[in-house]
Amino acid sequence: MRVVPDTGILLGALITSGTPPDLIYRAWRKKAFELITSEWQLEELRRVSRYPKLRKYLKPAEVGTLVNGLRRQATVLQELPKVEFAPDPDDNPLLATAIAGMAEYLLTGDKRDLLSLQKVETCQIITARAFADLLGLSTAD
């Protein structure tokens, strides 16, 4: 199963343990599914993790470990097709990652824009909680 987690899901895995993002990240580390990402998203992870509102929750070393782990163990796409499906144009590279990576699921918490699409080509767009449930992962909350 091929899965693209959005940047918020990946960073959420570092911020709070026992949550769906954390459980999904741990399941991926145990090879429960194939994680698809892109150079674009790795750069976005670095950039977003430096936002002042997130710096108090994220240690630069943890973000570096996450990015390095993704580079080693995930499928990292170099080139992305140009797509224009998202209500928010900033989300199009994430949709392009899902399409180019032939992902079955794109995981997001973006209710207004991404989740409202429900599906793009053959990729279902669902919440981290829905995916955790699909994998049979128990959540603390």
Task: Name some characteristics of this structure.
six-stranded mixed sheet, single chain, 8 helices, 141 residues, alpha/beta, globular, 48% helix
Describe the model.
- The protein has 141 residues and is α/β, with parallel strands linked by helices.
- Helices cover 48% and strands 15% of the residues.
- The chain has eight helices and six strands; from the N terminus they run βααβαααβαβαββα.
- β5 and β6 form a beta hairpin.
- α1 crosses α2.
What is the CA–CA distance across the termini? 26 Å
Specify Rg, calculated over alpha carbons.
Answer: 14 Å
**Number of beta strands:** 6
> How large is the count of helical segments?
8
Note the topology.
Elements: E1 2-5, H1 7-15, H2 20-29, E2 34-38, H3 39-48, H4 52-55, H5 60-73, E3 75-77, H6 92-100, E4 105-107, H7 114-117, E5 119-120, E6 123-126, H8 128-135
Parallel strand pairs: 1-2, 1-4, 2-3, 4-6
Antiparallel strand pairs: 5-6
